[in-house]
Amino acid sequence: xxxxxxxxxxxxxxxxxxxxxxxxxxxxxxxxxxxxxxxxxxxxxxxxxxxxxxxxxxxxxxxxxxxxxxxxxxxxxxxxxxxxxxxxxxxxxxxxxxxxxxxxxxxxxxxxxxxxxxxxxxxxxxxxxxxxxxxxxxxxxxxxxxxxxxxxxxxxxxxxxxxxxxxxxxxxxxxxxxxxxxxxxxxxxxxxxxxxxxxxxxxxxxxxxxxxxxxxxxxxxxxxxxxxxxxxxxxxxxxxxxxxxxxxxxxxxxxxxxxxxxxxxxxxxxxxxxxxxxxxxxxxxxxxxxxxxxxxxxxxxxxxxxxxxxxxxxxxxxxxxxxxxxxxxxxxxxxxxxxxxxxxxxxx
Length: 348
Fold this sequence. Notes:
Layout: E1 16-24, H1 28-49, E2 58-63, H2 65-71, E3 86-87, E4 91-92, E5 99-105, H3 108-121, E6 126-135, H4 155-162, E7 175-184, H5 186-190, H6 194-201, H7 221-224, E8 228-229, E9 232-233, E10 237-238, E11 241-245, E12 250-259, H8 262-273, E13 288-290, E14 294-298, H9 301-306, H10 316-321
Antiparallel strand pairs: 1-5, 1-6, 2-5, 3-4, 7-12, 7-13, 7-14, 8-9, 10-12, 11-12
């Protein structure tokens, strides 16, 4: 039976990452150039990743709603739509973005080289909307001083949380990803007593222990971002990274969340920005401002490799008949499993 290889949405966190968001320029030539890169991305990964097999270089290529229509047409992923702007106590902005490249490695130079090669291939076809270079900060802390991503699911639980199944069979193995770039007012945050900081986050700052329910306020960040259905918590996978430019006084966290349905993250953001109940909002937003917001669909690696540069966008009939070619099963960690990059990717 043909098998589908997902992109590495559940790959372990690394010390370095790049987040590159671009928009596709007008015209069929630009669209053909983008489609041409889809099929060649795995080859670029092999060529650059081979320089250091321990560097665990990976890249996810994801598409916004408008770009999907332009590049691929029908069928569409069932829940693909533009990012939903939220206006509550604070504002979750929606910003342009047709393609997201999420590049990860233990080494920033590998990330940088792959991004440079990608943009060289796309020269004249895209315009850069945002570029962020993330780094691991001490023991997986953000620049606010708290450990980030403690409750991420792992192993099969991560796969179950992120990869689409029978609910959208035509796109099984795909995923959704929402990104937001947050800028922190560190001077204001550092003026807040640590005990109050811990109540805002919902965890102790030094030991990263979750506050008990008797101590944790209902406005705590980790209280508002827990989503349940029929008593079961619905998980997402976060791959957040700190970033900053000291000379500019710019310090932030790049939020990136993967999920099999965007509704989970959208509900989290609604709770954070509007409040649960309304007005009981996330106090982190008093010092952290969202300056971007975009939603993308992550097709499978199989889908990307099968994209033809000059092909006209698929019709629904063509999409149903274009079965993926037979390939090896995906690796347990969700890696591409291609050539020299097919290896274990243990935790950092």
